[in-house]
Design a protein that fits this description.
480 residues, TIM Barrel, nine-stranded mixed beta sheet, eight-stranded parallel beta sheet, 17 helices, 20 strands, 30% helix, 21% strand, binds zinc ion, binds copper (II) ion
């Protein structure tokens, strides 16, 4: 009898490739999958019975803001409870490193709660994450807005000069050398709104040299979305980098139905360029509270406010009525604050999810007092609601979009498949009951039907609570 550390017996394996479920035992030795063999053939002193369950690769949450949550909250229950074993951090232009200025400002405070968690170099930051021994893995993008703040200080309302671009490019180059996996931009947000296409394309140049990816929270996800897609694809081409468009959506009632334009445009561009996108399975988005966004939302919920207590979780319109002012005036009084915006069409969300270029990213914001339910619900919602209930795609394809496909797109080696030699990142779930339980009213709630989650061979979620495993790693560019 081979001395395996763990054997997961009698499960139905969804191996991540998208092929049909098959019955098999899966054995683990150290941090790797050792064997995948017919049921009843593998034994260990430590066995997990997976009869009636699906054994899948651990899910990869490709769009997160968990950079410092991995340090402050190393059990990462909001993600491990969904079967997520890797989070891609540093999205939307904001990363916690490299940061060389004394004041992190309002924008970065969204992802950084404690100043000691930022770091002057990516290498130093990665060391802080490792020292915290998080339960799950992190892979890290460098934010273009973060680079801008380093190079330009507070003076962000203009294009960068050639020498500032050089500073940003060098910082990116060093960070990639130290293991960051790519760069994100957030041209939609004030710190980067004034940046030109040329600026971003020039800063992004090191991506081509190191094999990094480019992710984009595009300049416009509303009326001008097609133009923004062209800009994003151009930056990818000029940098020689694969493109991932973040949280693809057509925002605002006047843009409902426009997936009919954007999805064929993606399909066409994917023929000549490496392009993909991520989606979260909800019709509401969430970010900072911005007056410019109020008019295109059907409903706005407050997620936090530093100025007015007791408003998190409430409708902005109700808060405004109580203050006896307009919602715009109320938004001013709550600043700084965060919000949820109901601004998408359900049919659009479904067609985006089902597109061959789509993978799943939660975009959850870990420090919000009343977060968007996507923080705790995204992956079980795709499996339970969209795959099982609505039959948008087969379960095996839902798993593929959460595992092997993102692993390939983000260049995460030896992850995302149930295959001998791959890392033992695994999720055992009940296909008949898996579902999200987090709601807009009660957003902090672990999913149902996720039994056991392992990361690098350690149990990180079991029977509805953290499993105690703390073997998460920093996944560095170029590692195998
Ligand atoms: Zn974003
Ligand atoms: Cu984001």
């Amino acid at each position: 009898m081979a001395d395996y550390d763990i054997v997961i017996r009698n499960g139905q394996v969804a191996d991540g490739s998208g092929k049909s479920l098959f019955a098999a035992d899966v054995s683990i030795k150290g941090d790797r999958i050792a064997a995948v063999e017919p049921p009843g053939t593998l034994r260990s002193d430590n066995e997990i019975d997976a009869a009636g369950r699906v054994v899948a690769p651990g899910f990869i949450d490709v769009h997160t803001h968990d950079d410092t949550a991995l340090i402050d909250n190393p059990a990462m229950a909001m993600k491990a409870s969904q079967g997520v074993t890797t989070v891609v951090c540093g999205n939307c232009g904001a990363s916690a490193a490299p940061f060389v200025r004394p004041d992190i400002g309002h924008f970065l405070s969204l992802i950084v709660k404690k100043k000691e968690n930022i770091a002057g170099s990516f290498g130093e930051f990665a060391g802080k994450v490792e020292a915290a021994r998080p339960a799950i893995n992190g892979a890290f993008l460098i934010g273009h807005s973060t680079l801008r703040m380093n190079a330009m200080g507070e003076d962000l309302g203009r294009k960068a000069t050639a020498s500032e671009i050089a500073v940003m490019r060098d910082l990116l180059d060093q960070s990639l050398e130290q293991g960051a996996i790519g760069m994100s931009s957030g041209l939609f947000y004030p710190p980067a709104m004034a940046a030109s296409t040329d600026e971003v394309a020039e800063v992004a140049k090191p991506l081509g040299k190191w094999g990094g990816v480019y992710t984009a929270h595009m300049r416009d996800e509303g009326d001008d979305i097609l133009k923004s897609m062209d800009e994003t694809f151009e930056i990818g081409r000029r940098a020689g980098a694969p493109v991932i468009v973040s949280h693809h959506k057509c925002a605002g009632r006047s843009n409902f139905g426009r997936m009919k334009e954007t999805l064929p445009k993606f399909s066409e561009a994917m023929k000549s360029q490496e392009i993909a996108f991520d989606v979260y399975p909800y019709v509401a988005g969430s970010t900072i509270l911005r007056k410019e966004m109020l008019d295109r939302a059907d409903r706005v919920l407050i997620t936090w406010s530093d100025t007015v207590q007791g408003v998190a979780g409430r409708d902005l319109s109700a808060v405004a009525a109580e203050m006896d002012c307009s919602i715009h005036e109320a938004a001013d009084r709550l600043q700084p604050a965060g919000a949820i915006y109901f601004m998408m069409d359900e049919k659009d969300v479904q067609s985006a999810l089902a597109h061959p270029g789509a993978m799943i990213g939660s975009d959850g914001i870990p420090f919000d007092s009343h977060p968007h339910p996507r923080l705790w619900g995204t992956f079980p919602r795709v499996l339970g609601h969209y795959a099982r209930e609505l039959k948008l795609f087969p379960l095996e394809d839902a798993v593929r979009r959460m595992t092997s496909y993102p692993a390939q797109r983000f260049r995460l080696a030896s992850r995302g498949e149930v295959r001998p030699g791959f890392y033992a990142d695994l999720c055992v779930f009940d296909p008949a009951t898996v579902i999200d339980t987090a709601t807009f009213e009660r957003p902090i709630s672990p999913a149902s039907g996720i039994d056991t989650v392992l990361c690098n061979g350690e149990v990180v979620w079991r029977d509805g609570k953290p499993g105690g495993g703390r073997g998460g790693r920093v996944l560095r560019r170029g590692e195998v």
